[in-house]
Every structure is written in structure tokens, then in C-alpha cells.
Amino acid sequence: MSENPQSLGVLVLAAGRGTRMRSDRPKVLQSLLEEPVIYYTLSAVRSAGLRNIAVLVGYRGEEVEEYIEGEWPGVEVIWQREQLGAGHAVKVAEDWWKRYDNVLVLSGDVPLVRPETLSSLVSRHLGSAPRCTLMSFMADDPSGYGRIERLADGGVRIVEEDEAQEEELLIQEINAGVYLFDTEALSVVINEISNDEHEYYITDAVQLIGETEGDVSVIICDDKYELLGVNTPNDLAVTAKVLNKRIVRGHMLNGLKCMDPASAWIGPMVEFGRDVFVEPGAQIWGRSSLSDGSRIGAHSTLRNVTLGACARVIGPSVISDAVIGDGAEIGPFAFMRDGVSLGAGAKIGRFVEIKNSVLGDSAKVPHLSYIGDASVGKRTNVGAGTVTCNYDGVVKNRTEIGEDCFIGSDTMFVAPVSMGDGSSTAAGSVITKDIPDGALAIARQRQTNIDNWRQRKSIAGDQAEKAEEN
After folding, report:
1. Among candidate residues 43, 73, 51, the one with its CA nearest the CA of residue 3
2. Listed residue (312, 349, 356, 324) closest to 334, CA to CA
């Protein structure tokens, strides 16, 4: 942005409950592509180059404040202890916005707004210097929204739906709820807003500025979806579909390969390298980063995953909070979670769960195993059915397995326990003691063979049957 950064503040309204959402969670914290709704509004504001931002909180404001402080450093929080409408919210924040020459006011529930739209709004407002600029859009079905009435003298009037006459209800130009005020003009009228059934409307401020200053401008947004608010679960679903289509299309323009773009779901913070391939039904969320040449199998879910170059996830698999090395292969039906680190060329196979563990380069856990709270060295092979018994009923204990080890099928490691480099376990062993380097650990009962067992069992069965007949 070219304007003086101190000339403009941005006030994001996030105090409302959102009763039509039918949820105890604040509306702006509803999950949209695995991020809160307000994330998208704040991201658009930041991407537009605007830095003086305050979020006004109210209903369950502690939760919203915690999110803002944790994820958006530098954004101020203002409290509206009593929710009496957008006009009241702006009045509550008066001491904050008076710092600036202009204030942009918008709701935290417009996740489809683009940075380019906000940039254009600010540039046009500062360039022509009206006392107020607001945004509108044309709706096929304007029900539930305030209408923009264009007056003969060039002015505008905002008509709330419940106050609209029959001919006014036919107006399709809708008030988008995005306003840019000259703060000097706003400060003159803000205390003149009347209380209408225990609610103060910000549209009254626009009306008063128009009546006293005669200088209100309206900018029509060409995209009818962009400024839609999220008020209901249905709105959330519609918005998710539109937003996801936008995100997937953007990545595909930069080289992402999708077999079925409509079925892929990708979060807003996901990053892709070159020649990444995403199969149908895949979901990729959070701060995931997929390197060059990697591939995500059908119906797999990744969340906060760093995937190395040419690594492959065979679907369906579920991976969260993990770092995967170059050329690694995972799945199908693998589950990895809670801080897993997988080395280059490692392999995690069918029906394997890995939790809070580190596996070295070229380590292999091919199938049917649980590795939890453990480290597995380079080139170690873990046989089918291996389990690290990490929980003793009180605390989680670690298992340390060295490099170049061979672990026989159905080995149980009763942690805490360690296994030295180059060592092995016999199949079916229960390991309770540390294994030295290069040793073979056998921990099972000696086999006993009972001769003629089948014949004896048959004779005993015949005798029992005769006893019953007698």
C-alpha cells in the first residue's frame, strides 16, 4: 500500500455469537478448511498491506482473544462487554480508531474477501477522499440483507430488510457490511446513533454522514460470493466449497497436479513444491509443506506434515504433526501422529501406527506394528506384529533401537529398554532387558512337543461322547 500506514486503522468486528450457527463456539472461530473463519479475514487484511489492526471481541471473547494473541502478533484486542450491534461496537472502539485519519470496519465472518478488493477500496477512498466509502454486491436472492437505494441526487440510502417497502425489497444491490470512514466525520455522528430495540446500527452512521456531509461513495464488488457473511452451517459449507476451489485452482496454476480437483481439500497455509501429485479424496491441512515430486494417495489425510522430495503416501493413510524424509514411502492404511520424524528412504507399511517416534534413514516397519515413544536407527528392519509397550500405567517410557538391527515378528519391547546396533530379536520375544550391540535376544519359553496329541484328543472326545449317551 502506498498510503501512510498511520493514516488508516482496520477494525474487525468479532463480538457476536452467531445464533443461527446453532453452536456454543463463537462464529468467528467456526472451522473453515481447518482454520477459524476469522483467519481468512485477517489474512486478507494483512495481505492487502494493512498493519494497524484491532479485533473487537465479546461473546466468549477469551477464546477469540487467545487465538488472536497466539496466531496474530501485533493485532490488538478490544472488548465489547455487552453486544448491542455493530454501531455500538464501533462506539466502544472509538478511543482506538481516533488514532487514525481513516478506519476500515468489516466483519470477521467474510472469509472470501480478497486482499485485492481491500487494497482497491483503500486506494479509491484515499484517492477521492469521501467521508465514507462502503461496498456492495449484486445478489440473485437479496433476502436477509440491507438494500442499497440509489437516490436521484446521487446519494445513497441503506434500507434494512425489516423496514423496507415492497418496491425496496426488489432491490438486488446489497450492503456488504464493509465500511471505510473518515474518522473525523465518524466521530461527529457516532454518538447520534439511536438505540433501535436494544441495537445500534452502523448503517445509521452512514446515513447521518450522508445527510450532513453528503459525501458517501459506494463501490460494487463484481464477485457476488466474495463479501457473503458466514451465518449458518449451510453458509459454512457453501463458503468452504468456494474457498477450496479457489485454493486448489491457485496451486494448480503454479504446477500442482490433481487427478480430480473437485475432490481434493487443501487448507490455506499448505505449501507445494514442483511436480507434486494429489490423488482423489486427499485432504491436506494446517502448516503442511510438500516438496518436489511427492505424491499423496487417494483418501489420505495430512495435517501439519513436512513431506520430503519424492516421498510417497499410499492411500488411505493418516499423518499429523510429522516430518517425512526424502524418498520415504508410507501406507496404505498407515497412521502417524504426535511428532514423528521419518528419515530418508524409510518405509512404513500396512496397518502400522507410529507415535512420537524417530525413525532413521532406510528404517522399515513394513506391516502390523505399533511404534510409540521410540527411536529406531538407520537401516533397521522391524518385523510384523512388533509393539513397543510404552505405557506402564503411570508414565510413557521410551524404547531405543539402534542401527542395522533385525527385529523378529511379534517382538514386544517392554519400555524403558534399549537395543544395541546390529543386534536382533527372535520372533515372539518379550524384551524386558537391554540388548548389547550385535547380540541375539531370545525371550520366550522353551518349546514343548506332546507326542500323539491329536490321537489322544480324538480318543478323549470319543469317550466323552459315549459317556453322554449312557
Report:
1. 51
2. 349
Instruction: Give the domain-ending residue among 221, 240, 266.
Output: 221
Instruction: Tell me the C-alpha to C-alpha distance, in Å, between residue 468 and each of 457, 461, 464, 465.
Output: 17, 11, 6, 5
**The C-alpha cell of 239 is what?**
463458503
Residue 107, C-alpha cell as written in the block: 466483519
Kind and range of the H or E element at 407? Answer: strand 406-407
Domain check: are 65 and 140 in the same one? yes
pLDDT digits (tens, 9 = 90+) for 208-252: 898 887 788 899 998 878 998 899 999 999 999 999 999 999 999
325 shares a domain with 407: yes
Q: How many domains does the chain have?
A: 2
Evaluate if pTM is beyond 0.70: yes
Tell me how many degrees the CA angle 359-360-365 measures, rounded to the nearest 5. Answer: 50
Decide if 367 is catalytic: yes
CA separation, residue 393 to residues 316, 397, 413 (Å): 32, 10, 15
183 and 316 part of one domain? no
Could you report the per-residue pLDDT of 384-426, keeping only the tens digit for each? 999 999 999 999 999 999 999 999 999 999 999 999 999 999 9
Residue 161 lies in a domain: yes
Give the structural domain span for 171.
5-221
Report whether pLDDT(117) > 80: yes
- Looking at the structure, do residues 14 and 152 belong to the same domain, yes or no? yes
Q: Which of 362, 357, 400 is nearest to 381 (CA)?
A: 362
Q: CA 75 to CA 54: how far, in whole Å?
A: 5
350 contacts 333 by C-beta, under 8 angstroms: yes
- Residue 42 sits in a domain whose CATH number is 3.90.550.10
Other beta carbons less than 10 A from residue 264's beta carbon: 23
Candidate list 88, 125, 251, 367, residue with the active-site label? 367
Hey, what's the cell of 269?
497455509
Domain check: are 194 and 315 in the same one?
no
The secondary structure of residue 151, as a DSSP letter, is P
Q: In sequence order, what are the beta bridge partners of 342?
A: 324, 359
CB-based contact 108:55 (threshold 8 Å): yes
Residues 312 and 405 in one domain: yes
Give the list of residues 6+ apart from residue 41 with CB closer than 8 angstroms, or none.
12, 28, 106, 107, 108, 109, 110, 111, 113
**pLDDT score for 1:** 40
Give yes or no: residues 149 and 58 share one domain: yes
